[in-house]
Amino acid sequence: MEGSIKWNLWMGIFGFCLTFLFSLTANIWQTSAIRGAFGFFLFFLIAFLLRYGWGWVRKDRDSMPDASSSEQHP
Q1: Which of 11, 38, 40, 36 is nearest to 21 (CA)?
Q2: Within a domain: residue 71?
Q3: Average of pLDDT values for 4-15?
């Protein structure tokens, strides 16, 4: 897994703020806070999946044989 849990927390905070502010225009602040909490958890999980996927891609790239090492020298 790439990065640290800080990435997840920052993405969650971003998701909370984004959801809260957009929801605040049409709802009372309590409803907006609940929807912001859902946004936090959703963005937190998305960041977790992205970090996992990025780690998987990097692992595959690092495990691939290097083209220069597979050449045979006479």
Answers
A1: 36
A2: no
A3: 93
